[in-house]
Amino acid sequence: MVQPAWQDPVLLAPEAAPAPEYGTGSLADLLPTLAAGQGVPGFEAMIPELTPADRNCVFLIDGLGWEQIKAHPDEAPFLHSLLPTSRGGTGRPITSGFPSTTATSLASVGTGLAPGEHGLPGYTARNPETGALMNQLRWKPWTELKAWQPYPTVFQLADAAGVRTAQVSAPGFEQTPLTKVALSGGSFLGRLTGEDRMDLAAERLAAGDRSLVYTYYSEVDGQGHRFGVDSDAWRGQLMYVDGLARRLAEQLPPRSALYITADHGMIDIPFDEESRIDFDEDWELGAGVALLGGEGRARHVYAVPGAQADVLTVWREVLGEQFWVASRDEAIAAGWFGPRIDERVYGRIGDVVAAAHDDVVITASANEPHESAMVGMHGSLTPVEQLVPLLEVRS
Prior knowledge:
Strand content: 15-25%
Largest sheet: 6 strands, mixed
Radius of gyration: 21 Å
Strand order of the largest sheet: 6-5-7-1-8-18
Shape: globular
Number of strands: 18
């Protein structure tokens, strides 16, 4: 139905956005649930559908959301066959968290906390102490680790409780700040090839009566960003990682549970002016804005002091039919960042937060040339980005 020109536009309400399932079915709830089942003190089962196991392995495939697995049964026959096992055999996904982006999601996985507590609320966020944007994936500019993320990881607490813990990933990730604040604890074992990671993960899983092993693969996300999830390159990576998942599943030692999940999904964005709104070329969106953070589909907007209300009004008027546009307090009240917001995290969240509803992004061609050129994007609250698998294989 065409809206008459004289009618006011219908703006998307922040409180109507599909908030992540923090506390019952999000990435932040996975490791606490597994640790509780292994008897680690201080944890409780947050995802009630899961059954405890002595040995738990989490295989996180970067960028492979629930909708992508559903849509590609031919390229991912093994993963697709496991869809009915997801979330304890309910056949349902879990959610990533907001924003649905790697730094935020990996911190949620490793700490068992929502973004409002662990404090990595986006790809880039303002550091209230310095006033500068902090890239939380690349950790630039350098920021003291414990000040930014002070909580222990689930791996550290499980290791202290006698659970044999290990992370098996690419060697280059061992010393990264993100690994240290989000995934440290127990042993880090670097292996270059995916096959070697799967084999070693199975070995480490068998090394203890109670064990917790995490392994990771990144290139599904990498090919999606470069070429899109509708590309042959992306499909090739999906076929490859499907084989890796099968390889790991076939080597599980007794009394084990393997959980295959992801940090977010992905969506391809067309290269046209309607789909890609360039902040660096839009004087209206830029008025009163001191810093633009986040990423194309999940923007943190930091206003010049005193201009917060005006910036919110303009962003809502210009983008409110395509984005959920919220003030900081509205986004917090809607549960986007979790049930609790630490005081140190409050100022890292934008004065205005814009989460894409439609197939559209806010690029920044001058300041973010690499990110603006990507085909595949993620970050927002839509199902294609938020919903991630929790596929299960038990031995």
